[in-house]
Amino acid sequence: MDINQDRENISKKLDIGKEILYLTKTECQNIGVTYEKILELTNDALVAHGKKEYEMPAKIGVHPLEEVFFHAMPAYVPSKKAVGMKWIECYPNNPKKFSLPQTTGLLILNDILSGCPIAIMDCAWITAMRTPAVTVLAAAALHPDAETFGMFGCGVQGIEHVRFVVKRLKKLKKIYIYDVVEAASDNLIMLVQPEIQVEIVKGKKPQELAEKCEVLSSATIIIKETLSVVKDEWVSKGQTILPCDLNTFWDPKISKRADKYIVDSKEEHELFDRMGYFPDGLPRIAAETGEVLAGVKAGRTNKDELIVCSNIGMSVCDVIVGREIFDIALNNNIGKILPL
Predict the structure, then answer these.
(1) What is the distance between the alpha carbons of residues 247 and 188, in angstroms, rounded to a whole number?
(2) DSSP class of residue 276?
(3) Counting Cβ atoms within 10 Å, is residue 24 exposed (0-12), middle (13-18) or buried (19+)?
(4) Model confidence over 169-179: pLDDT tens digits?
(5) Local structure of 117: helix, strand or coil
(6) Residues 38-46: what's their mean pLDDT?
(7) Which of 16, 47, 170, 268 is buried deepest, with most CB atoms within 10 A?
């Protein structure tokens, strides 16, 4: 279907330029996009990125407080007829200060031919889904035979990582989890263990996970200060580390000595480097995640390679998942049509 036909189909339900579809978080969450579909869409986004079949500038942002950021994340993926922008913020202190989520935001989709906005939807659920999907797709490409997986951070992202990982790492025997708040670990086990066959083990300390797990991920907080919770001496050759929290959680020495340092977006990591999130310098980048998934560049070529694959989130994934949600909503009369 070309963009003219696509616009014509949308126009049957929406008066483009005069109306917009609004979708809440609950509507996005319950619309019927399955975990497998999220993985499929995210893989499509990463492959398009790896083949350079997209337009997406590095994140730009504002920083009203020292520890926070707002990011404007536009993207266009021609193959999916998806163009729009995510406007999202990270306020690490929200849960304690206001009993609010650390991350909230909106996704706007536009008509390609006229540029008019066609949808506004919550992006928190989309972000919570596509982030672990990227981690798990990368893990499957870099370490498909892993029998152990470790997750640092047991909030929304940690929960979804554990749900997603069993769908691609088929040989897993144990999943280790750790959170500084023990109740968060207990909550993850309570929610997810009944859903999956792989045993979830609550780790006593970070060192236990680092030393026992072949594949590790972290979804904690993103701040400029390097916390170095996981020490360099705990990490061994042959492991695959997939941070979602930039340079915060891991000893920077780990990424610097890794045999391969892979990132979802080179431009975005370079931007964060200029902003001061890599005080010891950005490691040399071997490839982008999408390039590995698209077969453009090599992933793991040796079982003893230590690989760090840093994925901080790309709007190509957001607009593709958002477009899928929009199509389902429009075809099933879900959401609220509002006048512009």
Answers:
(1) 24
(2) T
(3) middle
(4) 999 999 999 99
(5) strand
(6) 98
(7) 268
Distances, alpha carbon 184 to alpha carbons 167, 179, 180, 249, 275, in Å: 23, 7, 8, 18, 31
Buried-exposed string 31-50: b where 16+ CB fall within 10 A, e elsewhere:
bebebeebbbbbbbbbbbbb
Residue ranges in the chain assigned as alpha helix (H): 3-11, 25-29, 35-50, 94-98, 124-142, 156-165, 182-192, 206-212, 252-257, 266-275, 289-293, 315-331
| Torsion (CA) 223, 224, 228, 229 in degrees, nearest 10 | -10
The Cα–Cα gap between 37 and 40 comes to 5
Phi, psi of 204 (to 5 degrees): -85, -30
- In the chain, where does the domain assigned CATH 3.30.1780.10 lie? 3-126+316-339
Whole-prediction pTM value? 0.94
pLDDT interval class at 80 (50, 70, 90): very high
In the beta sheet, which residues pair with residue 109? 84, 119
Residue 321, burial from CB neighbour count under 10 angstroms (0-12, 13-18, 19+): buried
Class of 3-126+316-339 in CATH: alpha beta
User: Can you give the pLDDT at residue 13?
Assistant: 95
CATH superfamily of 131-313: NAD(P)-binding Rossmann-like Domain (3.40.50.720)
CA distance 1 to 53: 18
DSSP of 225-252? S----B-GGG--TT-EEEESSTTSSB-H
Q: Which of 262, 310, 254 is nearest to 286 (CA)?
A: 262
> Residue 1: is its pLDDT beyond 80?
no
Give the whole-angstrom CA distance, residue 336 versus residue 64. 32
Alpha-carbon gap, residue 64 to 149, rounded angstroms: 37
What mean pLDDT value characterizes the chain? Answer: 96
